[in-house]
Queue: 4 jobs
Job 1
Amino acid sequence: MAQKTFWKTKKLNKYTPEEWESICTHCGRCCLIKLQDEDSDEVYETDVICRYHDCQTHLCTEYANRCKLVPTCLKLTPENIGKISWIPETCAYYILASTGDLPAWHPLKTKKPLPEELKVSNSVVSELLVPEEELEDHIIEDADDD
Ligand code: SF4
Ligand code: SF4
C-alpha cells in the first residue's frame, strides 16, 4: 500500500510499483505522435495520439503489452526519466525528478481529478484516422521547447 506523502520522503528508486504508477496523471501527452527531423534530430509534437490511447478513460488500452506493440512507447523508470529530451514539461514524473516535489495540481495532492486543460484527450485525433503522409500537417509545437 502507498504511503500518503511518499514522494516527499522516498527516493524515486525506492518507490513501490504502485507508488511509481500513481505518479502518472494520465494526461496523455507522452502518447502524442512525435516526428523527428532526420537532419537536425529536432523532435516535433503533433496533435495525433497513439491508437491505443482511450480518450474517454485517458488510459492505455494495451498497457501491459505497450512496449511490444509500440516500439517507440517508452517505459519511464527512475533511471531514464532525466535523460529523455522530449518528455513534456508537464509530465508529473519529469516535474518530480527535476524539482523533488509534485506540482500543486497533481491529483495526489488535490485529491481531485487532473484539470481538463492538462489532458490532451479533448483536442487530439487518433493515429488510426490520419494517414502517415499527413502527420506533418499535425505538428503543433517543437517538443524540445516544452
Ligand atoms: S502504447 Fe499506450 S502508453 Fe504507449 S504511447 Fe500508446 S497509448 Fe501511450
Ligand atoms: S506525460 Fe507523464 S504524467 Fe502524462 S501520461 Fe505520460 S507519463 Fe503520465
Job 2
Amino acid sequence: MQVRFGTNAYDDPMEMLTRLRQTASVTTYKTQFEILSNRIKGFSPAHKLSCFLSGLKDEIRLPVRMLNPQSLNAAFGLAKIQEEYLISAFQAGKEGPKGFTMQNGLLLYKGRMYLRTCDSLKIAILQQVHDGPWGGHSGFLKTLHRVQRDFYWPGLRKDVRKYVRECDTCQRLKHETCNPTGLL
Ligand SMILES: [Zn+2]
C-alpha cells in the first residue's frame, strides 16, 4: 500500500473536487467549485467543465449535458435556467396546465422540453440543430422538425423560420447556387 507524504484526501483540492456534489443551489455549488478549482494548477478548461457537470444534481445535469455547453460559464447559465424551471414547476403544483408534465424533474410540454422566454438558449438550440455537425444548414421544415422533436416554446415555428432565413451561410450558399458564374 502506498502512502503519499504530507497529503491526505482532504488536503487535495482535486480529490475534493471530484467528490463535490451540488446539494443546495446551483450558485452555491459553483462558488464551492471555483474555490477548489482555483487551487488546482494546470486544470484544463475541458476537464474543469466535465468535473463541473458531473457534480450537478441529476435533474439539472441531464438537460444541461444535452445542450452540450462549450464553457463553464455556458454550463452555469444553462444550469441556472433549468433550476428556475424546476422551482417554477414545483410552485405550479401537481396540476399543471394542459399538456404539461414533469418527468425526472424536467418540465415537459407534450413530451418535449419546454423553454420559456430565454432567447440565448433558443439561439443556442437553433445553432446546434441548424449549423451543428448534423444540421448541415437544412431548410426551414427539416430544421423545424428536428427542433420540435425535443423542444417546445411558444412561437417556435416563427423563430425557426426567421433563423433559417437570416442564416449567413445559407444566404451565401443560395447566392452561389443562383449565380453559377463559375460555369460561364
Ligand atoms: Zn444555414
Job 3
Amino acid sequence: MHAEGPTFKLFNVLKSPVQVYAEVGEHILHLNALIGRSISLEYKGQAICKSCKRDFESLFRMGCCKKCFFESPLAGASILRPELSRAHLNIEDRDLDHEKSFQLQPHVVYLADAGQIKVGVTRLDQVHNRWMDQGAGRARIIAKTNNRHEAGLIEVELKSLYSDKTNWKQMLNNKSDGRELKEEAIHAKESVSNNLKRFFDLDGEQQEIHYDYNIAPANINSFSLKDSLKFKDDLFGLRGQYLIFSSGNAINLRSHEGLVLSWSY
Ligand SMILES: [Zn+2]
C-alpha cells in the first residue's frame, strides 16, 4: 500500500494501549495495525506551511515557513512560553481574535513522567492528547486556571523544581521517575508564590498511560528524514509522536510537521 501527503501530528486515542493514527493524504493509517510490518518513508523535498499553506522545499520551525514563524499567530510568543500571553489584557501579539480564542479558556498545569517528572501547561480540553503526545507514562493535573497566562506564571515558578522538556531518550527507553505525583503536587503548591496557590487542585486527575511499546530495542537513536531522505525498517512500537523501528532507529513525526512524506507499507 502507498500513501503520500504532508505530515500532521499523530492522533493518539486514550486506550490501553494508546491507539495511534496518521493522516497521510486521503488515508488514515492505523499504525498499531502496522507493528511488525516493514514501512518505508521518503521525503522528496516538498513541504507545506501550516499557516500560509504554500509549498516550500523545507520549513523553518513549528511546521511554518520562515515568514509565518515570525508573523503567524500559530507560532506566537505564548505558544512556547505561556507566561507571555497578553490576550487577558486585550493586548495583541499577532492576531488578537485568534489569541483570545486560544488563550482565554481554562488551562491546566500538569506534572508528567516520561523518564523524569516535567511540568507543562495546556488547555483543559487538550490535556489527554498532550500527555500522550509527550509519551508520558503517567501524568497528573496539579492546577487549573482561567487562562493561559495564569498557568504560565505557575509553570515558570516550577521550572526551578522540574524540567519543562521531555527527554526523548529516557522516554523511548521506558524509564520512569520514582516520585509520587500527588506528593509532588503538594510540594509544588508549597513552592509557588502565595497569589498562585489558589489555582492548585491536590485531587487533580491522574492517568497511567500504556503504549504499544513495552521493551525498548538496544541503542535507541533518533533520526530525521531531513538528513536521510529515505528510510525502511520494521515498525517495532509507538510512543508519543515517535515511531520506533526494530533497528532502534526512532523518528519523531512531530518534528516533520508539514513535510510531504511518501509511505509504503
Ligand atoms: Zn507560511
Job 4
Amino acid sequence: MYKLGHYVLSKIDPEFAHNLSIKSLKMGIYPTFKNQNTESLEQIIWGRGFKTPIGLSAGFDKNAEVFPALFKIGFSFVETGTVTPLPQKGNPKPRIHRFKKYDAIVNSLGFNNKGLDQFRKNILNFSNRVDYKDKVMGINIGNNKNTIDILDDLKILFENLYRFGDYITVNLSSPNTPGLRDNLKGNNFDRIVKEIYKLREQNNSKIPILFKISPDISPQDKKDIALIALANDIDGLILTNTTVDKSILNSQLSGGLSGKPLAKKSNELIRDFYTLTSGKIKIIGVGGIFTAEDVIQKMHYGASLVQLYSSFIFNGPYFINELNRDLSQAIQEMGYKNISEIIGLQV
Ligand SMILES: Cc1cc2nc3c(=O)[nH]c(=O)nc-3n(C[C@H](O)[C@H](O)[C@H](O)COP(=O)(O)O)c2cc1C
C-alpha cells in the first residue's frame, strides 16, 4: 500500500506531493519497523546518542509538525526548519522540480514556513504525547527575506528555541534568500559566530550550535571559514546546502540543485574542511546520498554524521530502514566494530 502511495506521489506536482506526505505522516499513515540491530552504527556526539549516522536534513519538516513520525521510519535525527521569526510565503510556484533522470531536485522555495510562534506550538504539542527522548531533533534557523541585519532574526530565534532542540543550525547557505550567502564571507561570518555564541553564554546554555555552508564558496572562503571555526571552537559545520550550479540539467530554472549531481561538490567540501580544521570540528555531510557506499564515502572524507533529503523523496518511506540495514552490514563486512572508526580514513 505504501509503495503504491509513493508511486502516486512521484507522479504528481512535487510541492502538492510534499504537502500530502506531511498530512499522511500527521495522520499516522506510514510504515513502522521492528528495531534493527544497528549497534555498530551508534555514536555519542555532543553528548547526544545517535542510533545511526543517518538524519533527515532541513527543509522537509519546516514547521516541526511530523518529526516524531520521521524517527519511526528510521531517521536517527531530524533537522526541523528552516524557521524564520515571521511566517513567510516564499517564492512564486512552481518552485520544486524533480529530474528523475539525474536523481536531482531543483527548489526555489525561499524559506516558506509558518513562523516561530507556530513552530514552537507544534513542538510543545508533542512533548507529552510522543516519546522521542532517545532521538535527536535539530532546529535550523534563518532570517526573513526583508530583514536588514540577519543577527536580529537569529537572536530572536535562538532565544525562543534553544530550550526545545538538541542542537541549533544557523543557515547561512540557502540560495533562495537574497544576500544570505554573503554572510559566509570572512568578517560577516566571524561576527555572526561570535554574537550567537555570546548569546548562548548569556543564556547559560550549552546547546551545540552548527553552521550550514554553501557548496559554492571560493577556496579563500573555505580557508577563512575554517580558521574562524577553529578560533571560536564551534560545535560543527553542515556541508552542504544546494548548489546554484545547474549546468548538468541544461535548464534555466532558478534555485538550488540537490541530489546525486551534488555529491561530488559536497564530498570535496567535506574533505577540504576536515583537512583545514585537522579534524577538530565535527562535520555533518549532506548532498547526494543514495546508498550505504555514499554514506561511507562522506565519513571516509571526514563526516561524523550524514543527512539526506532528495533520495528520501525519490525512494519513499521504506528507504531509510533499508539504508540503515545496508550500512550496518557494510561496516561489519569491512571488519569494524563501530562506524566511528572510518571517519577521516581517506583524507
Ligand atoms: C525541497 C527542498 C527544500 C529544502 N529546504 C531547506 C531549508 O529550508 N533549509 C535548509 O537548510 N536546507 C534546505 N534544503 C537543502 C537540504 O537540506 C540539503 O542540504 C540538500 O537538499 C542536499 O541534500 P540532498 O542531496 O540529500 O537532497 C532543501 C532541499 C530541498 C530539496
